[in-house]
Write a structure and sequence with these properties.
By secondary structure, this protein is mostly helical. The protein has 31 helices and two strands. Among the domains are: about 110 residues, no CATH class; about 55 residues, Alpha Horseshoe (Serine Threonine Protein Phosphatase 5, Tetratricopeptide repeat), CATH 1.25.40; about 80 residues, Tetratricopeptide repeat domain (Serine Threonine Protein Phosphatase 5, Tetratricopeptide repeat, Alpha Horseshoe), CATH 1.25.40. Strands 1-2 form a two-stranded antiparallel sheet.
């Protein structure tokens, strides 16, 4: 959604429209004009509807509060659009013009003065913002909210004493305001009183656990108090999420603008906030409001991927591919996701199309090479990796894939040599170490493979996922080497380091089952399925364990749940038939 002015229109045109009828002695409302020619039809109709209502109210000589409210609401629409699209500052100017016009018409409605102050605050005009906030303090029922806004501006202006007094006044009215505790904590921290800062900031965090800025301030406080562990804990959780202010008038602004573009922007804000389910819902609505909105389809697919809903993401990408079949990104993402789901033929088709559309796209070449390798076509995969390296000779990750393909082509020594060269240059490259370990494992060179992994673990950067992946591979080797206790130690450590590595839980389940620890095996396989519900081997293994425990009904339901996820998986069909037969026979024998 774009709302930038184009052509010769200035950022804001204050048009003294002929809104009234002849003989009307009241001045006609002055409304801002913006170029919305590239916006959604729904948004243009919304703005036009507000303007028509203002004209009608003026012509009817409506009461000043009613007319002012209509003008102010138009300002709120412009303001909401600007919050959805922060770079479109001319929309903020339009909002300010409406708020000031609403105040001219009706001086008694505090809302327009307050929203003018908030807009000035956002624009960086801090002194005028303080004046407008103070003007509204006496007349608003939301006094705590105004105190919090005013205190923050005073603090930004460097007037700590004024800010502190305002935050304390807000807390006297409502002790559970996280923004006030956060503000007092910052003042104490700036003044060198880390103990008082910690007390205030901990209270703010208790009231608003997701406020990343509070975590950042607490990290600094704990550092000053000589507590590096707690400082690190809070620093890991620091982000730009502020301490919240309960402000319905402001919070409702982004909900006002109509149209697919505005809904898309609301969805993107939800993505930034980590609210992926809300983001998916909003982005789906954006595609329904305008089926041709390519950005909405693309961002819906990305949100579904981030939300761990790959099948729905594939459907969203397929819809996007039908709308824009010449978009290389769509073909690449669709091919990559299909490959992850084991659907190699359609994956390769889409990736070949991506390479055709963007021959110099190195990642498309790599993904096509990987899909061909997984489909058992290593000789076709190798040229794709070679081309990727021609495009970017420093794309070191490709060497790992190239080595694995060489091994699959019956040239394991060449592949191992490439990986050893990589590890000589970068001993902490966990991916290279894992790839070399797999080649050595396939040659039954288990001791050598373990030494490679041990060397990488000694050099790997402080990255829990990388270390977890290395320990997963080491656990696999130990299990193959008939060392179940050591294997479980490494696999369970991998699970703790990186819970998303579902294969570690699956392998641990297999080892537990071999040891006869069926309860632990069932728990491990269940954990694997929690992380990856469509992982068929874990589902089959869990069903087998449940059947061994005599829990035939649960085993059958486990397989049937898998069939609902993967209706085309024939392995599940066969397993279900075997289970039903064995359960019937077992019941008859009893």
């Amino acid at each position: 959604m774009t709302h930038r002015n184009t052509g010769s229109l200035p950022a804001v045109l204050l048009a003294v429209a002929v809104l009234g009828c002849a003989g009307d002695s009241r001045p006609a409302p002055q409304l801002p004009v913006a170029d919305l020619s590239s916006a959604d039809e729904a948004l243009r109709a919304q703005v036009a509807g507000y303007e028509a209502r203002i004209r009608a109210l003026h012509a009817e000589r409506a009461a000043a509060p009613e007319l002012a409210a209509a003008v102010g609401e138009l300002g709120r629409v412009y303001h909401g659009l600007q919050l959805l699209q922060p770079e479109a500052l001319y929309l903020l100017e339009n909002a300010l013009a409406c708020y000031r016009e609403a105040q001219r018409i009706d001086r008694n409605d505090w809302r327009w003065t307050y929203l003018e102050a908030f807009a000035l605050d956002a624009r960086g005009d801090l002194e005028p913002a303080t004046q407008r906030y103070r003007a509204v303090l006496a007349s608003t029922p939301n006094r705590v909210t105004v105190l919090l806004r005013l205190a923050e501006v005073e603090h930004r202006l460097g007037r700590s004493s004024a800010a502190e007094a305002l935050w304390r006044e807000a807390l006297a009215l409502d002790p559970d305001q996280p923004a006030a505790h956060y503000g007092l904590g910052r003042i104490a921290l700036d003044g060198g009183d880390a103990t008082a800062a910690a007390e205030a900031l901990e209270r703010a965090l208790e009231l608003a656990p997701a406020a990343g800025r509070v975590h950042h301030a607490l990290a600094l406080t704990r550092r000053d108090l000589g507590d590096p562990d707690r400082a690190g804990f809070h620093l890991e959780r620091a982000n730009e999420t502020p301490a919240p202010v309960d402000d319905p008038l402001v919070q409702g602004l982004v909900l006002l603008p109509a149209g697919s573009g505005a809904t898309l922007q609301r969805g993107l804000l939800a993505v930034q906030a980590g609210a992926l389910d809300d983001a998916v819902r909003l982005l789906e609505r954006a595609t329904e409001e305008d089926p041709a909105n390519l950005a909405a389809h693309r961002n819906l697919a990305l949100a579904l991927i981030d939300a761990g809903r790959p099948d729905e993401a594939i459907s969203a990408l397929q819809a996007l591919a039908r709308l824009d079949p010449a978009d290389a990104w769509t073909q690449l993402e669709l091919g990559r996701l299909l490959g992850v789901r084991g659907r190699f033929d359609p994956s390769i088709t889409h990736l070949e199309r991506a390479v055709e559309l963007a021959p110099r796209h190195k990642q498309a070449r790599v993904e096509l090479g990987l899909a061909l390798a997984r489909a058992g076509r290593p000789r076709e995969a190798l040229p794709q990796f070679e081309t990727a390296l021609e495009i970017d000779p420093f794309y070191t990750e490709v060497h790992n894939h190239q080595a694995v393909v060489l091994a699959a082509m019956g040239r394991p020594e060449e592949g191992a040599r490439l990986l050893r060269q990589r590890l000589d240059a970068a001993p902490g490259d966990g991916a290279a170490a894992r790839a070399l370990s797999r080649i050595l494992r396939q040659q039954q060179r288990f001791d050598e493979a373990r030494r490679v992994l041990a060397g990488a673990l000694a050099a790997v950067p402080d990255d829990p996922r990388d270390e977890g992946a290395l320990r997963l591979e080491l656990g696999r080797l130990l299990a193959l080497g008939n060392q179940p206790a050591r294997a479980l130690s490494e696999l369970n450590r991998a699970r703790r380091l990186a819970p998303e590595l579902f294969e570690a839980a699956f392998l641990a389940g297999l080892v537990y089952a071999e040891l006869g620890r069926l309860g632990d095996a069932a728990s491990a396989h269940t954990a694997a399925l929690d992380a990856r519900p469509d992982f068929g081997p874990a589902r089959l293994a869990l069903a087998e364990v449940l059947a061994r425990r005599g829990e035939c009904g649960e085993a059958i339901e486990t397989i049937e749940a898998g069939r609902r996820l993967n209706p085309s998986d024939r392995n599940l069909d066969r397993a279900l038939a075997d289970l039903r037969r064995s359960c019937v026979e077992g019941g008859a024998s009893q």
